[in-house]
Amino acid sequence: MRKFILIWFGQLVSTIGSYMTGFALTLWAWEFTNSATALALISFFSQLFRIPVNLFGGIIVDQFNRKTLMLLGDAVASFSTIVIGILYSTNCLEIWHLYLISSFNGIFGQLQSLAYRTSITLIVPKEQYTRANSFDFSVHYGSAIFAPALAGILYPIIGLLGIVMIDFSTFAIALITLVIVFIPQPNQTNDHNSETIEDKLTFGFRYVWHNSYFRKLLILTCLFWFFHDLGGAIYDPMILAKSDSSSQILASVASAAGIGGVTGAIFLSWWGGTKNRLRGMSWGFMGAGIAKTVFGLGRNSLVWLPAQFCSSLNFPLLGSSETAFWMENISPEIQGRVFASNNLILQVISAIASLLGGILADRIFEPWMMTDNIFSPLFGTQKGAGMSLLYVLCSVGMFFVGLWGWYSRKRMRN
Prior knowledge:
Blueprint: H1 2-33, H2 36-48, H3 50-63, H4 66-89, H5 95-123, H6 129-180, H7 197-209, H8 212-232, H9 235-242, H10 247-271, H11 277-297, H12 301-313, H13 315-329, H14 335-369, H15 376-379, H16 385-408
């Protein structure tokens, strides 16, 4: 596990820097546009070009050096950070720049993510898959604890440009940890040499779809993440709208998410997870759905903070259970193509959800909830009420997906 821990540490430091920049840019974009759609489009464009990359990404990851691909992803991300800093310092930064940069980062970030995930099986013993994946969740949630707080403190002092420079320095640490670690390559087979381009591009889809267990798992996952990302697209603007654009409250909620996620990851590392992966996923789906429903019904941080903590507590369990299932059942030499095909489907779902979230909030739910209706006693008629209603509907959908998975678990293998 030592190789994995070293790479993990570099990614943790780098992600903290990236989250600091992302938090500052979210505040800047909200002040600049005051639009849920504008913020949702940042997420949409970050996913848009990941989709076609996945068609070829699996083939690339299975045939090229995975460590090199990971280094390339970090290098491109650091370059993009510098571009943002230059644009901001010259008063040229516009919202469309963020769309363009998000798209550019998405291309190389997707290759890096695939290379990283498929490398875990080569440097971590099989019995440690769940623990390794729980460590990965602590990267995201650990960063969510520190990054908003650090950005909130430093932003008034050093501004966006200073935060961008911190972000760039954290990329350097991630690059160094990757350089000094040896990552083995999987055994190569010659089967792909006789395949047509069409066969290579569709291999992952065919492999998953022709197996009923894999197919059911993928359908469940797609439904859950559609509801999650539809609600997630309006998460930041909902909080900002209902808190009078308070960066402190947004940062506090993000930190609560981080604390919940890290707590869940630590517990999962100690526990090791359930043997039945679908059962672990289902528990996580239902737990997240319940907590997010409470979050959407809340109107202030007294409800948001504990609800967000409880929500994030579930994600290491659901995510690690899903990833461990695929790692245990897919051979390392074909993981790139299979994981890429799954990612492509999930990212199409995510991109659609991200695009729909802002449009539904701005054009349907927000205008409707500004007038008295049957939901007014629960959500009110103030700004952000429509986004809250949409968020709760998505959260209820997440719960029922988990309930379906729970009743399906006996018909699927461990």
